[in-house]
Amino acid sequence: MTEQQEAAREALERLVASANRLGVELDEEEALQWLAAMAAQHDKEIVHDEKHGVFGHRISMLDFSDAELARFREIGKLVGFDDEPGVVETALALSGSAAQSKIQSYPGDADYFERVNIYADSREEACNILARLMREKALSTLQGETYRLIQVRFGSYPREMIHNGRLQKAGSSIGWTPAEMEAGAIEVQLPGGQPATFTWEEAACDPGWCKLDWVVADPARGELANASNMLDVTWEAPDGRIEPLDGYLDPYFQEVYLEAESVPIFSKLAKQVSADALDDYVSELERQVAAYVSKDPRNYGKAAKRMYNVFRLTGRYPEAAYVRELFDEPAALLYQVGALIRTMDEATDPYSSISMKHVMAQADNLILDVVRVLEGEEEVEVVQLLLRLRDGLQRQEEGDAWTAEVEAARDQVINVVNNFFHEKLVALPEIKSYLDGLQGL
């Protein structure tokens, strides 16, 4: 037995003892293989799956399953950007739970990440090209039978403004509704109350955080999902210099790239990533964890996802393996509920083109899944809550609005999920100690 295998076996024994004590089912053989793979030394940081044409950081690839690859590539046609020879080159990847499909038995959203490299003579020209690309993508995907644009993030508020009834700080990201996208402008109020118009062209001067969100339906599966594409945009100057338009080149520790043809652009941009990228990435994840567990409303499910990435990237493999198992627990199925309800809200908007039958089918499937995987009082409670949600959808179809009762049912289901993750996380002393150490971040 090698040193790595011995260390993995010892870690597994401690993990099994903890999991048994806390009532978490553990696949010992799979956990041992994962621990050994994480502890093993590798010459190559980037791993290629030649058979399926995908690639990514070796740690990310350990959690990726090709089972849903065809579906993700199909959604990618909607959310991804096209190359323009000599002007734009792109590399589309899965991120979040979509990139961890081997452990996320009950994934939430379909999250994508795309590197967009723009060739231009000046930064200003690159920003204008980006503005054109994003507006064309948004307007061409406003709505269809199986999708609807929700929001676009583009530009930064040049000063403090009131937008859609909310005070926005200078420098914060601008969220554009579909109607505002069509108009090419947002109507705002300045601090003194004066009305003003801020145009898409003006936003191009400081693109900032670039992201697009849709709700999509899969009729064959009877499922709804929120699909997003986070853009990391760079400008390549005539002299070969590469500059991120938002001032920061994102690392690649949680992406699985969908096309082998993207290797050249990925390799070129990966060389530009800061030597401190891993430390910065982990620090940002820890700030997010601290926020999710300390600020109301708390969300221990989202905290758990980020802790898993922190643990696996910083060598805390037993803790990572334990959190990994939580997402395969039956109660983790309910993690879908939050995403589902948000998707339902968007899909049932009066202006949505998505058929109500897709929304109802999603609710029916979730109820059946709950009946299949949960037991006892927990199953009864959750099914009753989901039936109330479905009843609310039925009334919406008949023209009524969401009722306070339905909103209360939604909040109760989300609370069940939160309690599950909180109970399991703090029950492991190592994780409780870790969370206690994050206070004040």
Q: Can you lay out the helices and strands and say which pair or pack?
A:
Elements (H helix, E strand, L loop, with lengths): L2 H20 L5 H12 L6 E4 L4 E4 H5 L6 H11 L8 E7 L15 E10 L3 H18 L2 E2 L2 E10 L4 E3 L2 E3 L4 E4 L1 H6 L1 E5 L5 E5 H4 L6 E9 L4 E14 L5 E3 L11 E2 L5 H8 L6 H18 L5 H14 L3 H10 L8 H13 L8 H18 L2 H22 L6 H23 L2 H9 L4
Helix pairs in contact: 1-2, 1-11, 9-10, 10-11, 12-13, 12-15, 13-14, 14-15
What oligomerization state is this entry in?
Answer: single chain
Number of helices: 16
Radius of gyration: 23 Å
Could you give the count of β-strands? 15
Number of domains: 2
- Mean pLDDT across all residues, rounded? 85
Percent in strands: 15-25%
Give the uncertain stretches in residue-range form. none
Largest sheet: 11 strands, mixed
Q: Distance between termini?
A: 41 Å
The global form is globular
Percent of residues in helices: 40-55%
- Helix and strand composition category: alpha+beta
